[in-house]
Amino acid sequence: MLQFPHISLCEELRQTTEKDYSSLCERQPIGRLLFRQFCETRPELRRCVKFLDAVAEYEVTPDEKRRECGQDLIEKYFNPKSDDYVPEVEEAMMAQCTEALQQEFPPSPMSPTTAHLTVCACQVRATGKMYACKKLEKKRIKKRKGESMALNEKQILEKVNSRFVVSLAYAYETKDALCLVLTLMNGGDLKFHIYHMGEAGFDETRAVFYAAEICCGLEDLHREHIVYRDLKPENILLDDHGHIRISDLGLAVHVPEEQTIKGRVGTVGYMAPEVVKNERYTFSPDWWALGCLLYEMIEGQSPFQQRKKKIKREEVERLVTEVEEEYSSKFSEDATSLCKMLLAKDPSERLGCQGGGASEVKGHPIFRSINFKRLEAGMLEAPFIPDPQAIYCKDVLDIEQFSTVKGVELEPKDESFYGKVSTGSVPIPWQNEMIETECFTELNVFYQDGTVPPDLDWRGQPSPPPKQGLLQRLFGRQVSLTTLYTSNLKYFIYSWVADVNYLIYF
């Protein structure tokens, strides 16, 4: 049974919470719920929340219905005679919104209608939610000097919260491995789907849909000043519903603002010319790799390599830097245009690298049928939905390697690195889990008369724990996950209430 610890045990965590509206009431899933519960108690705030919800709904409304939705929104919330009128919006802003709606939808007489890891599924005992557990063997990491790459991947996954990038929910360690608990992706990778599901390649509609989702994922990474640098079919995974997520961020790196970086890293055949030449860059290699991937999805082979044909690395790099790719009849005019613009040898001429970033790529005519607002909200159906009974991998060796590491011993000095990786739960994915599994609803209980329950009452301190026997002291070092979950949740609820009151009254 889930039960909260006393609030006094959680107070020290409050010092690390960001005390601003965006963090507390928008980005934090539980904070967003608590804020809405608070607004429900005040009529003037309830009306504002309804208006914000209506605006959000307008953003993801299908194009053919947006004009009607926008007019309803204006009539309901900008009309002083309406019960839902929002006086907080200035008249100048109302006029600007009305004008923008008319310009976007003018009236018309027509009425158109990796080698050192294993991955396995795991389940959180307290909530029942399923995840993928990526286990990195400690000895193998040490043998290959992979500490910095493992820590880098963990820290970047922890920072990024995107529908199109795998999410890190927990990070912990066992005696032999570091464990990253990630989004469960049961649909296999794009490499398997391109080459092992019939004729190589996809039809253009499917390839364009995946390219659009990858573009959104790259946009979310670049927004955090992260360049991915390893975009290739085997790193793009499908979930149960056929949507993709970018995975394996071991080569991703943070790009300082207004600066460039240098590094000849990536996979042969997908590295951009500037990477091959060891020149400086920011995010341009990712848009090149998207061009390579789109080409491969349509053609059924990489633009600079032939499948199952050995070509020396030097020759592949010569093709990348000097030779133009060839296009077959599988490519439409739009597909050819987009691939050529993404595969421009000069990064300054490449689509996505001319100041507009992802918006340049999204604006290409090939995406005219994609409503990106609805795509980013998860409201578009994928062109292919994996069979839940199928296993989308070539063989068992694609899943796990069974070799053991010899001649490597773990030392006490390694503990510092392990401590940096195994930091427990990650806030936003953890909060989503608490909401999805209804733990939040079960635990977020206050008395009807307004009084607080005992675990929130500062006047009563928690009872001291009973003395432990010898066996309990020997075997009781493991942290209770249930205590961890409830401690985190109660702390979040308590500190959110205090911080929102601070924002409102000061």
From TrEMBL:
GO cellular component entries: cytoplasm
InterPro entries: AGC-kinase_C, GPCR_kinase, Kinase-like_dom_sf, Prot_kinase_dom, RGS, RGS_sf, RGS_subdomain_2, Ser/Thr_kinase_AS
Family annotation (Pfam families): Pkinase (PF00069), RGS (PF00615)
Residue ranges constituting the Protein kinase domain according to the UniProt record: 83-367
Residue intervals of the AGC-kinase C-terminal domain: 368-433
EC number: 2.7.11.-
Sample GO molecular function, one term: rhodopsin kinase activity
Annotated GO biological process: regulation of signal transduction; signal transduction
Active site: D230
Domain RGS: 27-109
Catalytic reaction(s) noted: [G-protein-coupled receptor] + ATP = [G-protein-coupled receptor]-phosphate + ADP + H(+)
Family indicated by similarity: Belongs to the protein kinase superfamily. AGC Ser/Thr protein kinase family. GPRK subfamily.
Protein known as: G protein-coupled receptor kinase
